[in-house]
Design goal:
With 521 residues, the chain is an alpha+beta fold. It contains 11 helices and 25 strands. The chain has helices spanning 15-25, 49-54, 116-129, 158-169, 215-224, 274-283, 355-359, 375-380, 416-432, 450-453, 502-520, and strands at 5-11, 31-35, 64-66, 71-72, 102-104, 107-109, 132-133, 175-176, 179-180, 185-186, 189-190, 229-233, 235-242, 249-256, 259-270, 302-305, 308-315, 328-330, 346-349, 382-389, 398-401, 407-410, 438-441, 459-461, 485-487. The strands form 7 sheets. Strands 1, 2, 12, 13, 14, 15 and 25 form a 7-stranded mixed sheet that branches.
Length: 521
């Protein structure tokens, strides 16, 4: 097959690459998808909290380093569908104001070169494609939309409904999380034919019943039904080769099953995730591109963002028997608060904690009212939250690749004060609604420490723009320096806002796919 020429080669099968491949499949053009991983095995461990969170069974085994030389394993998942195989399926639109310049307490979040209006129709298509369940009109900061969500919101279980009602009673605006999920339900009961069964192993777990709207289920499977689409698994793209001018990618060098192969296409699309796509550019350095492919601006790998994320348990004497907990969101403090003039961020309920996760934590002394510290019981008494605020794009926050192959991720957090204030807002809310919580800060999520190893919300590294001196991609997400190379993961983000990035990745992939289809003719 390596002697064949394709119309399009897509490197990576996560939300960006998979969406673009499905969109282009109907054109009849020959499309090759290269995925370094394999299909994630469906097995009982998919729903085992110790295997998933503590042991990191499905996480990449790569070893990277921070700028102090400390090693860590990045929260990456090499599988068909990419990181979406274990994502929480929260599919938010960026707020309309996120596309404009926003002043934060410690800097400025720059404006996007395109407005929200350009993305809106693609957001609508993305929500339909990924089966997003939600409800318009309840989120006080939701952006304008051309229509309702395609599916009704996922129902709250009694404890979450009581929390939502209590928050409304004190003047706040909770709303159902927009979730990409293959769920048919009556009340809070999944129907017998529903792929999703509303289990507790959803947020951060692979889905054993294929009920999560991930990139494999929604895009790769349907794309492969077209005879013109081919998927190769276990295909690690070592580098991209260009012609002598450096302006055209002429070869995609792949290692598959230990053997080198070269594939060619008229158009090549990188969709490896913002960190891995940047590394691919560095590995593709040549005489024409000595600092890495696409890197004449010295911007590849820079401006890395990943949100300020923290998971919290609110543990109280009252048990919480909720099974499917990831249903509530609050953005009342997204752009500020009565005591803070700058953006704070988003509060979400997380998937339900499991005893194995709790056991991995250092438990404080105030949990002595659980005499034997039974971990499952502590988890049963918790409400679980995700607190997310924006981090700013800094040139010094970057990923680099040394000549010996060593990967270094430099991260100096921004927005720390906003994040601390947002956590305090959560504490106040829970006190005001009489939840009597003690908040424990999780040190683990997807098996690794959030500040450096948590790369689930990775973005930046090859931002788009109109100036080749300060951006890597043009407005169509084509590399400024190379005529036939595009990028459709979160690399293109100039800023990240304070909502999950996946829906914006999908919407942009649809937008870029339309451009590529027009170019192919």
């Amino acid at each position: 097959m390596s002697n064949d020429r394709f119309d399009v080669i897509v490197v990576g099968s996560g939300p960006g690459g998979a969406t673009l491949a499905l969109r282009l499949a109907k054109t009849g053009k020959r499309i090759l998808i290269l995925e370094r991983g394999d299909y994630l095995k469906r097995e009982p461990d998919n729903w085992d909290a110790k295997a998933v969170f503590v042991d990191g069974k499905y996480q990449a085994k790569d070893t990277w380093f921070d700028d102090r030389g400390h090693s860590f394993h990045p929260g990456l998942h090499y599988a068909v569908g990419g990181n979406s195989k274990v994502y929480g399926s929260a599919l938010f639109r960026l707020r309309e104001r996120d596309f404009s310049e926003l002043v934060h307490s410690d800097g400025v979040s720059p404006a996007w070169p395109l407005s929200y209006a350009v993305f809106e129709p693609y957001y609508a298509e993305a929500e339909a494609l990924f089966h997003v369940h939600g409800q318009r009109g309840l989120d006080p900061n939701e952006p304008p939309s051309s229509g309702p969500y395609p599916f009704k919101p996922v129902a709250h279980e009694p404890r979450l409904q009581a929390l939502s009602d209590a928050l409304e009673k004190i003047g706040h605006h909770p709303f159902p999380q927009p979730l990409g999920i293959l769920l048919d339900e009556v009340g809070t009961q999944a129907l017998p034919t529903s792929p999703c069964i509303r289990c507790s192993a959803f947020d951060g777990f692979p889905c054993l019943t294929n009920g999560k709207a991930d990139a494999q289920i929604i895009c790769i499977g349907p794309a492969l039904a077209y005879p013109n689409v081919t998927l190769l698994t276990g295909a690690y793209v070592e580098r991209l080769e260009t012609d002598p001018s450096g302006r055209t990618v002429t070869g995609v060098h792949v290692i598959q099953n230990g053997a080198p192969e070269i594939y060619t296409a008229d158009i090549v699309v990188a969709a490896c995730g913002s960190l891995s796509s940047a590394l691919l550019m560095f590995r593709s350095a040549s005489d024409q591109h000595p600092n890495g492919l696409a890197n004449s601006s010295d911007q590849v790998g820079r401006n890395y963002m990943r949100h300020n994320n923290a998971a919290f348990m609110a543990v109280s004497l009252a048990p919480n028997d909720t099974v499917f907990q990831k249903t509530l969101a609050l953005t009342d403090f997204y752009f500020g608060a009565d005591d803070w003039d700058y953006p704070l961020g988003t509060i979400l309920t997380n998937g339900k904690s499991h005893g194995e996760e709790v056991q991995a934590e250092a438990l404080p002394a105030f949990l002595q009212w659980f005499p034997d510290k039974p971990f499952d019981e502590i988890a049963r008494h918790s409400l679980d939250f995700w607190v997310m605020s924006e981090d700013l794009p800094l040139p010094t926050n970057r990923i680099t690749l040394a000549k010996d192959g060593r990967v270094t991720l430099n991260v100096r957090p921004t927005g720390g004060e906003a994040h601390r204030r947002l956590r305090h807002k959560l504490e106040q809310l829970l006190t005001n609604v009489d939840a009597h919580p003690h908040l424990l800060h999780h040190s683990l999520y997807l098996g690794k420490n959030i500040p450096i190893g948590g790369t689930a919300h990775q973005a930046g590294t090859m931002r788009f723009g109109t100036d080749p001196a300060s951006s890597v991609l043009n407005l169509d997400c084509r590399v400024h320096d190379v005529d036939n190379l595009y990028v459709v993961d979160a690399s293109f983000f100039p800023t990240i806002g304070a909502v999950n990035p996946t829906l914006t990745i999908i919407a942009n992939a649809l937008r870029v796919a339309d451009h590529v289809a027009g170019r192919l003719g």
